[in-house]
């Protein structure tokens, strides 16, 4: 009996193994395809993210893109209407919760996103988790967004429920890839003009060493002597603009800090706090900002980790880096002081040490953007004067805003007048 059962088991096991070998390629195939489909996206997918196009080139250029064309009636040469590209083609890759999220993106010639399609990610239906990114409707938010926008989850992008890391990875991946494509192919776009302006404003800071940044006042050193005879050394610098953040702590650490800040609070700029010295720890609740006699104490939810100080200008200068998210009531265009409470009771700020900080004009110009050209300023003034004039002439203003309603009212008055005249004639 045992021998017969053994033979049956062996036979069954052999059949099962054979069946597994036959079925394994079919099971594995979707995953393999999923990981490589970004290299040769289906034309229907490209039409999905670029609806205005009816033709696409092969992948070409640096960075690689698919040029999107539309053939107008009666013309021979098709018209270029935009570009289609995949985020894996434009590193660095932004990592979701379980790995990279490959995305197909369409962008028109004005720098507007025309469509987004998620191609592959480890949490997909191919990995038994359900295709929750597509099913959530999250990708639809990017349609018609201009790449000048921040694409920040929790601010101008609604994140997916219980998927903050993946939401951030998709949004940041689309934004960064689209901006790289725009820089390469949309030389006349507003984004490229502003990016060039930002690069010029940043150039002098990029050339300076850490010591020179301190000498220039962009980075300030706050020395905090403590009762145990140790000293806390805090390096302070404004990094409320992504170019400044990447300059100071590196792109990866800044992105992580920016993501965490966006999750915790709705608004506020980031101030770098580089921590050095021989003190055993930093007591974050002893930090505050002082401006115009008002104290803005730091809060735990407004203080985030900003890396171990291994990249950017801060590399090798500190034990670690943090970012204090400034209270939105603080005017960064005006001088302020960063203070550290040295009194007996934390948070009273009866005794403190401080360092004054003020943003240089070139840094403010980087944050606030380039000034408007004279012709745009003139147009803005004309629009403003037209608005003022219309407010001074309420009837004209009402007619301008309600043209068709006014015409309908005049027609109704005319009809009623004619009817009244006819009735009077009959009588």
Task: Give the number of helices.
Answer: 12
Largest sheet: 5 strands, antiparallel
What are the segments in which pLDDT stays under 50 over at least 5 consecutive residues?
A: 9-34, 124-130, 375-404
Distance separating the two termini:
121 Å
Q: Label the overall shape.
A: globular
Structural class category: alpha+beta
Helix and strand element order: HHEEEEEHHHHEEHHEEEEEEEHHHH
Task: Explain what you see.
The protein has three domains: 37-186, no CATH class; 209-368, no CATH class; 374-416, no CATH class. The chain is built from twelve helices and 14 strands. The chain is 41% helix and 19% strand. The longest helix is centred in the N-terminal third of the chain and has 35 residues, at 2-36. Strands 1-2-3-4-5 form a five-stranded antiparallel β-sheet, sandwiched between helices. Strands 6-7-8-12-11 form a five-stranded antiparallel β-sheet, with helices on one face. Strands 10-9-13-14 form a four-stranded antiparallel β-sheet, with no helix packed on it. It has helices at 2-36, 43-49, 132-135, 164-185, 190-207, 210-216, 242-249, 251-264, 361-368, 374-392, 394-401, 403-426; strands at residues 55-56, 66-70, 79-86, 102-108, 113-120, 220-225, 231-238, 270-277, 287-291, 294-297, 303-305, 320-325, 336-341, 352-357. The model is unreliable at 9-34, 124-130 and 375-404 (pLDDT under 50). It is globular and about 90 Å long. Helix 5 packs antiparallel against helix 9 (361-368) and helix 7 (242-249) packs across helix 8. The chain has 427 residues and is an alpha+beta fold.
């Amino acid at each position: 009996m045992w021998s017969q059962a053994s033979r049956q088991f062996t036979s069954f096991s052999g059949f099962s193994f054979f069946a597994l070998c036959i079925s394994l390629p079919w099971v594995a195939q979707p995953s393999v395809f999923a990981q490589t489909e970004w290299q040769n996206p289906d034309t229907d997918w490209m039409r999905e993210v670029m609806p205005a196009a009816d033709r696409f080139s092969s992948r070409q250029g640096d960075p690689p893109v698919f040029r999107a064309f539309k053939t107008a009636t009666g013309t021979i040469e098709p018209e270029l209407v935009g570009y289609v590209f995949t985020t894996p083609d434009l590193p660095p890759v932004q990592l979701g919760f379980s790995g990279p999220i490959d995305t197909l993106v369409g962008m028109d010639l004005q720098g507007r996103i025309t469509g987004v399609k998620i191609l592959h990610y480890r949490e997909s239906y191919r990995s038994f988790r359900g295709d929750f990114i597509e099913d959530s409707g999250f990708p639809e938010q990017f349609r018609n967004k201009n790449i000048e926008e921040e694409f920040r989850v929790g601010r101008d992008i609604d994140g997916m429920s219980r998927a903050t890391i993946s939401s951030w990875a998709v949004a940041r991946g689309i934004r960064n890839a689209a901006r790289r494509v725009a820089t390469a192919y949309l030389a006349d776009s507003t984004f490229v003009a502003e990016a060039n302006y930002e690069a010029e404003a940043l150039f002098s800071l990029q050339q300076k060493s850490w010591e020179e940044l301190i000498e220039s006042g962009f980075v300030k050193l706050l020395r905090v002597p403590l009762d145990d005879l140790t000293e806390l050394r805090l390096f302070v610098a404004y990094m409320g603009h992504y170019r400044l953040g990447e300059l100071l702590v590196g792109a990866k650490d800044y992105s992580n800090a920016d993501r965490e800040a966006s999750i915790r609070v709705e608004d506020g700029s980031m101030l770098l706090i580089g921590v050095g010295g021989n003190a055993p720890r930093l007591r974050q609740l002893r930090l505050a900002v002082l401006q115009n006699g008002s104290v803005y104490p730091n809060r735990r939810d407004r203080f985030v980790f900003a890396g171990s100080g291994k990249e950017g200008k801060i590399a090798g200068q500190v034990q670690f880096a943090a970012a204090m998210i400034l209270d939105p009531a603080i005017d960064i265009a005006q001088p302020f002081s960063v203070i550290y409470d040295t009194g007996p009771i934390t948070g009273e700020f009866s005794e403190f040490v401080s360092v004054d900080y003020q943003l240089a004009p070139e840094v403010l110009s980087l944050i606030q953007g380039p000034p408007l050209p004279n012709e745009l300023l003139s147009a803005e003034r004309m629009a403003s004067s037209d608005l003022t004039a219309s407010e001074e002439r309420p009837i004209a203003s009402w007619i301008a805003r309600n043209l068709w309603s006014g015409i309908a009212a005049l027609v109704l008055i005319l009809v009623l007048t004619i009817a009244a005249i006819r009735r009077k004639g009959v009588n």
